[in-house]
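Budget justification note: compute hours in this period were largely spent on complex prediction jobs such as the one shown. Inputs:
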Amino acid sequence: MSSEVFSSVDDTELVERRRQQVVAAATELYGQNGFHKTTVKEIAQLAGVSAGLIYSYVKSKEDVLFLVLQSVLESYAREIPKALEDVTDPVQRFCAAVRAYCKVVGARPDATLLAYRETKSLGAEQQAAIKQMELKTNQLLTRCIEDAIAAGYFRKINVELAAYRIVLLAHGWALKAWRFRQFTSLAEYTEEGLDLFLNAMLTPKGWAHCRGEKEQ
Amino acid sequence: MSSEVFSSVDDTELVERRRQQVVAAATELYGQNGFHKTTVKEIAQLAGVSAGLIYSYVKSKEDVLFLVLQSVLESYAREIPKALEDVTDPVQRFCAAVRAYCKVVGARPDATLLAYRETKSLGAEQQAAIKQMELKTNQLLTRCIEDAIAAGYFRKINVELAAYRIVLLAHGWALKAWRFRQFTSLAEYTEEGLDLFLNAMLTPKGWAHCRGEKEQ
Amino acid sequence: MSSEVFSSVDDTELVERRRQQVVAAATELYGQNGFHKTTVKEIAQLAGVSAGLIYSYVKSKEDVLFLVLQSVLESYAREIPKALEDVTDPVQRFCAAVRAYCKVVGARPDATLLAYRETKSLGAEQQAAIKQMELKTNQLLTRCIEDAIAAGYFRKINVELAAYRIVLLAHGWALKAWRFRQFTSLAEYTEEGLDLFLNAMLTPKGWAHCRGEKEQ
Amino acid sequence: MSSEVFSSVDDTELVERRRQQVVAAATELYGQNGFHKTTVKEIAQLAGVSAGLIYSYVKSKEDVLFLVLQSVLESYAREIPKALEDVTDPVQRFCAAVRAYCKVVGARPDATLLAYRETKSLGAEQQAAIKQMELKTNQLLTRCIEDAIAAGYFRKINVELAAYRIVLLAHGWALKAWRFRQFTSLAEYTEEGLDLFLNAMLTPKGWAHCRGEKEQ
DNA sequence: GATGAATGAGTGTTCATTCAT
DNA sequence: CATGAATGAACACTCATTCAT
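Corresponding output:
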């Protein structure tokens, strides 16, 4: 994947710091007004730098969008594994992954929306890179599901499809948060969704296992 | 709703015809390149009219987007009731509604995506009008669910949340069609999703009812 | 002068009638919003005809302006001689001319303003034609002045310059009517202006003559 | 007056310089072809800058017109007081004011014409601001006349009306310069006009005073 | 490294004018 | 003669990007 964003500045640490400033500003503005309505000058102003400076750290306005979306996807890739760190039981790992995913999405629903809304504004290559990152996130879920199947706790279902249903569960909150917030909480939404899926996925052995867990 | 799009031409039939031309062209282009990257001239060219003519039937480029999204939402509001016309059994009606929704979305996944991507590009008023139409579509689903609950076939769940899960099922196909198409079909996707939800919603009485239906 | 406006319609009487409709509408609109801000469609609408029809009686939007200005200038050329018809005394003729000029201007100050504001919007040829008409109007005044000089009533002054001062007296009302109306009337304005000029122009013989007139 | 024109550039001196460039170019072009027929690109080209740059110093094409008219009116407000600086005698001050006014108008007759022709092309607020400036110029004249009346040199006439006659004298040169230049000079035009007004305004005491001045 | 003035290509929109009906 | 839908050239204005300082 050739999707490294070019910078004319060498000092890696400075590049990082500047980009963070810019990405933070851009995320807010893109979320509010969309990619196209947001001008580079607005981003620069909110980031507290000059418009010209941005082009020392990024080759185009599109690159900024790429960095923004990258940072969103990275937060997924960071948070889910973190939530799984100390969990060993396959079913518990699955549940933890789902909860973690929903939680990251819930923390910045606008960011997730942004990914849906603006990915197409990127060039083909960067679009592909973003999709690649999404697939990697999904693999975190597929692996959990596969493990639970291997352990005999989940039925032998289409793993990738199941993973996508989870993704849609999590993203669904972001997509419809404006309405959901009016009659439910993220936690409730997540647990009910989780129930739904467990219901459909657990084998009798899986059920027994779960009950055992709870009885402990 | 004050969201009628203004036309300087009076002949209703002509207005309808021209708008259809323009909306068809715009849907394709907006879907391909997004609202902002698409120029009015491109739309005009694809629609086979002059750029100026568009402004006889629409007051702004934004109006064209509104018309496009409106036509998408209208197709939902048209197709779902049609699918329910001759179905009386509450559970069957629910299933028919879900299948119909998934089918309309599947017929023009780009159009559904467009609604997600570009609704924010509209002015506040038109945005509200679109959301209103979406709510109306959802009510087609809530009514089905309520009826099934009233008949004792579905458990007493949060109706609106359930409806939204269905919406996300249907829209999910559009959102991830690029991937889904690689390993499943819309029908399979729909039926499996339906199963999932029925599993979670049916009461014992509902289950018995279903089995009876099939045995007939 | 090749400044005849072309019409594709032959029936002279109809041409006249239609043009009057259009000119009336255009005068109002040009006066209100200026030539450039006024659209042909607006003129057509106010005139109660279709936009296309105008082009049967006129070759361009500019032609309409020309007709409008022509009608203004013609009203000068018509009213001043009428006011002189039964007056034979040179000084009286001069006074009658001045009063008549001020009166026509006062009747449609907007129209006079229009001539100042929009003559430059015409093509060179039509601009020249309008100036020509203005010169003709001025000659009505110069002739009066010359006659009064010949009769020994006026001093031997620069006749054309004097005529222009009168023109500016009359036009001045239109140019500053928005202010003048607040503290004087057209009649007062006219008489005081006339006094001013007579003062400067009358010979002793002229003065005696005037006094004699009044004593009669 | 809320009629300050906005600039996105802060450096006051640069703003001043650029605006002067633009105003100079615009004055010429507006004078030649009128406000509406002149394109922003033409102005930019003549000013030797890019079209886009203009919008760093001005918010709209209309603002350029405002700046142009403002500069005309300012030249009046600057030159007339300057001409009065070392003159103390009321009648002399009046004469100096009239001569100064005619001279500024004569220096850029096109600019004065522009004010007549294009003030209506401004928005309501800027139109009002221009009229306000015109009133201020007029007050320079009224004050002279009032002083001469107070000193017993001028008769007790309607001061504002008299001031406007002077204004029309000065503007008259601009309005009809195309003709006047063919048979007289600005100086002659001015002096004769001044005579005319003095004739009508001076009291016997004023006459005596004048003669005295000359005899000195 | 940082600034922000300058560029100029690109776009939505208007409107005089034409012409099929 | 009359209509008004259709055309398309023209124009104000925006904004990503560059580069001299």
